[in-house]
Amino acid sequence: MSGMWAVLKRELKGYFTTPLAYVFLVIFLFFSGYLTSKEGFYEARQADLSRFFRNMPLLFVFMVPSTAMRLWAEERKVGTIELLLTLPLTIWQAVLGKFLAAWIFMTIALALTFPMVLTVAFLGDPDAGPIFTGYLGSWLMAGGFLAIGCFFSGITKSQVISFVLSVVACAILVFVGLPSTLNYLSTLLPAGLTRAIEGLSFQLHFESMQRGILRFSDVAYFVLLIAGWITACAVMLDERKAC
Amino acid sequence: MIEVRQLRKSFGPLIAVDGISFEVEKGQVLGLLGPNGAGKTTAMRMLACFIRPDEGTASICGHDIIKDPIGVRRCLGYLAENAPAYGEMTVGSFLNFICDARQIKGPDRRRAIDRIVPLCSLESVYHQTIETLSKGYKRRVGLAQALIHDPPVLILDEPTDGLDPNQKFEVRRLITQMASDKCIIISTHILEEVEAVCSRTVIIARGKVLADSTPAALKQQYGCSLEEVFRKITRTRAASAA
């Protein structure tokens, strides 16, 4: 436990001692606000954040892999992986420490979007439920993307390769659930299979949360997704630490 | 304290370490000698539980490297080749991270850091980030990291590589000072270093142990300098083995 804490602390500090965190936060906050107002946040005259949450998957597809790409690829490149994995830590402590550090960082980024909440609260009388589940959904989705990014960061020394692979993997999971894709797939595949594919996508689970519905199956989807990719990452790193 | 039994590791068709065995006792400094690509680094990485051996095993302080890697790492100080360290951290925060990971807390931590910083002459760079340090200082940070928990067993991969003569002398003196109550393995190409610090040498080439003796005994046996002994052993015996 304390081993995981040591890795987590170092990693989280690492974000803020390099310009990475600040560049990320500025760009993330700018685009989350920009896309929201572009969708007609004020013109719609509705006191809710649906326009804010609607863009989250697209934004996360690019932003989350950029925070996750350095987690292991950099350690491999610089050779510090040999230092880290010869300290008395289990592979799980190292993997979870790094993943949680990145997730805490994403939590900070999401928390800093609080002016959106203040704005709707000032202009109208919003329903707190959908805002809460929207944030919960965004947070879980960030965790899912990070777990994917963590895995792809572990398989290569190149941060660029890890970024590209995780963007593609996340994009597939988002876009496969869009109505246009599903319509197309339903012309090729049996209905059951199309529904199964829809059930695997981020979109379906995130959308219901963003409407204020908190279902066990949606939360379980994200939890399983995170656990699965993190396990894959730990197993893979344990098998090939060097090279 | 270190027992190595028939360790073997190959990378695809290349056999890096081909069934090496040796033992090291407390108070010994073992110099692992060999040409480039002989398997020194691979052997050390297996002992530090970074790479898993294909066959064979080893135990350090009674902990098996396959069954109890965490126990091994706890009583081991390991300096990897090129002394990797997190460049963006300061020396102080890096050493504190190592203490966190090794669970050295409270007054123990202060004592450990107060001991190690002067020992490795790091006082002047304590608040500097590691990426701005010279090669010699970086290597000393690596040494500090390996020594901070005062481990009974030390494995140092080329500890003096890239240091200037004065720094080399300092590191050798440090190793000699610690030798009496520790068990140390160092790898090196520098033969004068072997004579200066090692009480035993194991010469390996192409993954096999070719000689296991003391530097003095080897010189006597072959009747020439250690450098010539090294050339004779690694060239002729490796060729006949192949």
Describe it for me?
The complex is a heterodimer of chains A (243) and B (242). Chain A has 243 residues and is mostly helical. Chain A has one domain (2-239). Chain A has helices at residues 2-17, 20-38, 50-54, 56-68, 70-78, 80-84, 91-111, 114-123, 128-154, 159-175, 179-188, 191-200, 202-210, 216-239. In chain A, helix 1 crosses helix 7 (91-111), helix 4 (56-68) packs parallel to helix 9 (128-154) and helix 7 packs antiparallel against helix 9. The model of chain A has no long low-confidence stretch (mean pLDDT 90). Chain B is an alpha/beta fold. Chain B has two domains: 2-75 and 152-241, Rossmann fold; 84-150, no CATH class. In chain B, helix 6 (165-179) links the parallel strand 7 and strand 8 (183-188). The model of chain B has no long low-confidence stretch (mean pLDDT 88). The interface between A and B is medium-sized, with 26 and 28 residues.
Note the quaternary state here: heterodimer
Mean of residue pLDDT values of chain B: 88
Rg of chain B, nearest Å: 18 Å
Q: What is the second-level CATH architecture of the largest domain in chain B?
A: 3-Layer(aba) Sandwich
Q: For the report, how would you describe the main beta sheet of chain B?
A: 6 strands, mixed
How does the helix and strand content of chain A classify structurally? Answer: mainly alpha
The computed structural class of chain B is alpha/beta
Show the largest interface: A-B, 26 and 28 residues
